[in-house]
Amino acid sequence: MDTKKFTRSYKLNLYGIALLLFAVIIFPFLVPSNYFISMFILIGLYGIVCTGLVVLMGHTGQISLGHAAFYGIGAYSSAIVSGKYDLPPLMGVITGILIACIVALLIGIPSFKLKEHYLALATLGFGVIVFTFLKEWTSLTGGLNGFFGIPPFEVAGFTFTNDLSYYFIVWAILVIGLWFVNNLIHSRTGRALKSIHGSESAAESIGINLMTFKLKALIISAVFASVAGSFYAHYISFINPQLFEVMTSIVFLIMVVIGGSSSLWGGLAGAIIYVWLVELLKDWVPLLGFSTGGEFEIVFFGVLLVVLLIFKPKGLMGSWMEKKLFLSQKKNVQNKKGAAL
Amino acid sequence: MESLSQLMQLLFSGLTIGSIYALIAIGFVITYNITGVLNFAQGEFAMLGALLTISMSSAGLPLYLAVIVAILIVMMVGGLFERAAIYPARKSSVATLIIITIGVSFVFRGAAIFIWGTQPHSLTPFSGNTPIRIFEAVLLPQSLWAVGISLAALAGMYYFFNKTYTGKAVTACVMNRFAAQLMGIKPEKMSFLSISLSAGLGALAGIIIAPISGASYQMGLMLGMKAFIAAVIGGLTNAPAAVLGAFLIGIIEAFSEGYLSSGYKDAVSFAVLLLVLFFMPNGLFSKKSGKRV
Fold first, then answer.
1. Which residues are CB-neighbours of A322 under 8 A, at least 6 positions away?
2. Which domain of life does the UniProt lineage start with (chain B) (predicted)?
3. Which of A310, A311, A312 is the best mutation test for B, with the most CBs of B within 10 A?
4. Nearest chain A Cα distance for residue B228, angstroms
5. Residue A115: is its pLDDT beyond 80?
6. Where do the structural domains in chain A lie, given as residue ranges?
7. Most buried of the four, A333, B199, B217, B248, by CB within 10 Å?
8. Tens digits of residue pLDDT in B129-183
9. Which residues of A touch B109 (CB under 8 A)?
10. Residue A187 — φ and ψ, nearest 5°?
């Protein structure tokens, strides 16, 4: 791949991020509805998790079936640090990040020693273990009854009390995250990750240390998930272990697959589409005469997942970006030809 | 004496659940080796088998007939799944295929909710409920059925893979897909065959366990995952080792339930999975088999 394409997609993404930032700022003024704001907080949180997952899945080609556990680690760290020990919420967020990093290392090192898809298995096992501990360690986590009374997030004397403030901070984090990932995937690290996805042996033979780079990708995605979890806990102020079950990990996976793991925007696009589809299904399923809406959702997303992977394995954003880049490249070539003539 | 009877009791329940895991784990191993897919929908076949049998036997069909018909239906579902979801995507990456099987397991689970609802159903035991007492421990007849049927099924599998032409063709594909292809064996056909066979085994497992722990739309997930652990402990490529792994997991689970707490049961088995992955990624029994060769 020539550097030209990289700089092009880099710039394109940067414009996209600027546009997004603008849209984020004006959105609450255009649509001053609490329903939409709270919906977009959720989208933003999912978007953060999935943007991290994009690095792991799309750029390194590894599957995680346990990211809900990292999300849960963030949420419970914040809850326990700020709710139980009355320490500043920022410390909860940082604790979550640290624990997520350590855990990612602990799972990553052994599973990356192995070829193929042992990470999927290891993260799956890890997800169940974390869920069990959240459920059973009642003195610390509150068990299945959940953890009540998580204080609102506050930093530098400013307390985040209403939805709008959470909307801004969540989307600010998402924008920073996207900017970071954009830089990452266009850096040497990003190219190394891409080459690992392409062919592990080829990457290794040009001197890329598979272990280090795969670990980096896993840690980045774990941190993203943990941060999102922390803010979820502060925003909702009540959490229980079921929120961080294996199913949630699979939901994150679905979002990334829908959005397309090969594009920077895949995570956010997937989160938007997922949340929007869930809302849509809530409205439509009763009209079709089914009373069990939540279950209909499961089938629907299952079919969607299978169909997408068979017919559009790059996801929606992936296909779109590819077309866009391909077309612009073609134009470039034509322009050059024109100039030469 | 008290502790001995408890020990025996836990051992029995471990062997019972282990035999269920064994049936599903073999399906995993067969599917994995022929198609390269870790089939996350494997446990759902058990769920479908159990619920179909319950429906048919409550509709008045004799139990043995219900069992046979249910297994056949699930085998057809398995074949359909292979043709509809695995076959069209057989050229994509393993990661994609794994996610496809997750999607399919969603579809099965959702379909089960539509047909059977969310509440659990129960199946009457195959032969009464009078417990048998051995060494102060109580053994339910259904446990004997479970162990007996799975051992019989395992023997049947052994015969199939080693003595019949089709079975040998499947084995050939497991050993070396390319070489098998050169010998005129169609891997696509074997893939179809192996997935429907594993589906049948899974259905059998579900039917056996239904009288013990009931059947509901969500039973497949955990059963599948446990069987999965068993298969990984066995090294994923070796069916007899997977069976041993399954009994091991069953026993570990029973003991951690008995001596620790039932809440931590799942965590213990997954911790075993992680430990095996980290320290003996080729499976617990890999050395033994290596020596034998």
1. A262, A314
2. Bacteria
3. A310
4. 9
5. no
6. 3-333
7. B199
8. 677 776 666 777 778 888 888 888 888 888 887 888 888 888 787 777 778 888 8
9. 298-299, 302
10. -100, -175
The residues in B 32-91 lying below 8 A from A, measured between CB atoms, are: 38, 85, 88-89
Closest approach of chain B CAs to the CA of A308, in angstroms? 9
Q: Say how far apart CA A142 and CA A171 lie, in whole Å.
A: 30
Distance from chain centroid for Cα B136: 30
Query: Across chain B, what does the average pLDDT equal?
Result: 80
Number of domains comprising chain B: 1
DSSP A80: I
Contact B241, B283 (CB under 8 A): yes
> Domain spanning A3-333: which CATH class is it, in words?
mainly alpha
Cα torsion for B85, B89, B93, B99, to the nearest 10°?
Answer: -20
User: What is the CATH number for B99?
Assistant: 1.10.3470
CA distances to A280, A285, A307, B265 from B111, in Å? 20, 15, 17, 29
Q: What residues of B are in contact with residue A110 (Cβ under 8 Å)?
A: 274, 277-278
Give B215's strand partners: B121
For residue B110, give how far its alpha carbon lies from the nearest alpha carbon of chain A (Å). Answer: 5
Q: Spell out which residues of chain B touch residue A257, defining contact as CB-CB under 8 Å.
A: 99
> Would you call A159 helix, strand, or coil by DSSP?
strand
**CB atoms B99 and A305 under 8 Å:** yes
Range of the domain at B220: 2-292
- Residue of B220, B263, B226 lying closest to A125 (CA atoms): B226
